[in-house]
Amino acid sequence: MSKVVNNLMRLALLQLNVSKDKLVNLQHASQKIREAVKEHKPRIVTLPECFNSPYGTKYFREYAESIPSGETSQTLSQLAKEMGIYIVGGSIPELDSDDKIYNTCTIWSPEGNLIAKHRKMHLFDIDVKGGIRFKESETLSAGNEFTIIEVDGHKIGIGICYDIRFEEMAKVYRNEGCKMLIYPAAFNMTTGPMHWELLQRSRANDNQLYVVTTSPARDEKGEYVAYGHSMVVDPWAKVVKSAKEGEETVVADIDFSLVEQVRQQIPVYSQRRLDLYSTNKKC
């Protein structure tokens, strides 16, 4: 019996204010999820990177918790079940059984089940002269696994923030049949203005799929100032919807049939010169 595929899907991206109080952050995220579902009825709700804690190496261990037994996981599980939606749970600092800490995205089904988790594969270690220095590797360990979920017959690849800079990772997801990539992300005021939109449109154009990013809202008084501008980009590399800097809910209606239209009209995938270079790796 063939699977019924629905090509239309509504997303809600929650660009949230984040404080130093984990309980307040969880309560705020819960309120915003309920409001988004009541008003917009999305199939998937996405949250920002580090939505339950400040983004900073000195905070990761303090705020870290186990998955799925931690309070953040339990909150998202209950909300997904209560609202009957998929939740791509941004990211949180995860404390593993071996005492390592990961930057981890959890994904929850409408039944409240943890269907996948993605540990950030590429750690954000940069030193831009006159701009920003940040070393996630001072505290975090890198994940080693690709993460693909399937919603209504459509494969969706998951990455976190700095992962988006690596085209090879996105290509692996494309090779596995993904039609959308979702990146919870917290670009900063140095790299954001230069590369935020550019990278999303590049990954969408390279792989002819949707790219979705969800950022924390910008807090000019914060130690780490997020760029904001949560965004949805279509397979033509067109920006479909974008937030501004502050707290905002972005709602976008996705038509997955556009993925196949673009791939048929500009068939770069079948035209690759695999006799000269290899880009066929899968998970």
UniProtKB/TrEMBL annotation:
InterPro entries: C-N_Hydrolase, C-N_Hydrolase_sf, Nit1/2_C-N_Hydrolase. GO terms for cellular component: mitochondrion. Pfam families: CN_hydrolase. Residues 9-256 form the CN hydrolase domain. Keywords: Hydrolase. One of its GO terms (molecular function) is omega-amidase activity. Its EC number is 3.5.1.3. The keyword Ubl conjugation does not apply. One of its GO terms (biological process) is glutamine metabolic process. It catalyses: 2-oxoglutaramate + H2O = 2-oxoglutarate + NH4(+); 2-oxosuccinamate + H2O = oxaloacetate + NH4(+). Coiled coil: none annotated. SUPFAM superfamilies: Carbon-nitrogen hydrolase. Gene3D superfamilies: Carbon-nitrogen hydrolase (3.60.110.10). Belongs to the carbon-nitrogen hydrolase superfamily. NIT1/NIT2 family. This is omega-amidase. It comes from Musca domestica (House fly). The lineage of its organism: Eukaryota, Metazoa, Ecdysozoa, Arthropoda, Hexapoda. The gene is LOC101892560.
